[in-house]
Amino acid sequence: xxxxxxxxxxxxxxxxxxxxxxxxxxxxxxxxxxxxxxxxxxxxxxxxxxxxxxxxxxxxxxxxxxxxxxxxxxxxxxxxxxxxxxxxxxxxxxxxxxxxxxxxxxxxxxxxxxxxxxxxxxxxxxxxxxxxxxxxxxxxxxxxxxxxxxxxxxxxxxxxxxxxxxxxxxxxxxxxxxxxxxxxxxxxxxxxxxxxxxxxxxxxxxxxxxxxxxxxxxxxxxxxxxxxxxxxxxxxxxxxxxxxxxxxxxxxxxxxxxxxxxxxxxxxxxxxxxxxxxxxxxxxxxxxxxxxxxxxxxxxxxxxxxxxxxxxxxxxxxxxxxxxxxxxxxxxxxxxxxxxxxxxxxxxxxxxxxxxxxxxxxxxxxxxxxxxxxxxxxxxxxxxxxxxxxxxxxxxxxxxxxxxxxxxxxxxxxxxxxxxxxxxxxxxx
Length: 429
Hints:
With about 425 residues, this protein is an alpha/beta fold. It has two domains: about 5-255, Rossmann fold; about 260-429, glycerate kinase, domain 1, CATH 3.40.1480.10. The protein has 16 helices and twelve strands. The longest helix has 18 residues, at about 290-305. The protein starts with a helix and ends with a strand.
């Protein structure tokens, strides 16, 4: 198989392994004819998860109703569970209204009812219901600032949980009905309290932790946000429910898809084509261009000494890198962490033969544009130069998208309606 086609096939397999329409049924509780079954949720996979629940319970006599919120253009037609589209990665009023309705419907449940919560990556933004005294404009500004300064998603979510009326376990706290949560993980390490800011999961973090994160990144947040967190640290606002709280005895959180599961599915594609797959990990984090430099050093070692792995080999990894933008806003900043990783890798591997790579986000959107990621090969830099897109200039401008678009090497899938984070594969022939 052509190297580029093989790389794309591996990515497609990774996405398919996390497709809710294929996997949700196996994790649902048996149908209940007692009381109501309310389905709520948030994330990039919310619509496909809701549709999968409807299909699984079809004809079973379940009194099914609900509401989920997903990213714009990620909706699907459903019959019983309403799908609302809202803003991501920066929250908006549509998400706020949906979150408020979800909370109200959960609060109306009784002990004889059942609550099914569908959680996936992106839910932190989509399920945004600011704490009293914090406006949506404040929450938007805080999210934008944390994105700009390159804070990892887990630390962003510590802050967001403490500015929310619904995240950090508070949704479970609001329910008198037993709760079953199905989780598609998009965070390194699959910590359920970090995924979509853990609406039904005990939260070990504190207001003090949130303030420490703002200080660490020198984040400039609105005065109302700073004041609210400081008041929380003084004990003036209730903390999120913690591990050991008896309320979680009625909550069953089930992890149904992870990055590692998707990497394993991709590995089988390479193995079937005579290429040894090596999974380097599903928790890779750090600045995208710096991670690329480390990977490039490993590739050079393999190419020069056939060690520590012998070609043909595919180096596969997942996780979520970051891209830190300049405070002054300089640069065109088009693209995302996957395309920036790939461009940096191509620069570092200039002159190295027979190395091909893909980096793409399993949700189908890499950063600011409409592509999932991109492909690179030994001719990438020359084609970019010929197209008037010198690689180093584009990297410094954080405009990897412009380069890969100019040479026709973007990977475009449209919304995949799932999300188990980034996928990277480097094929050494």
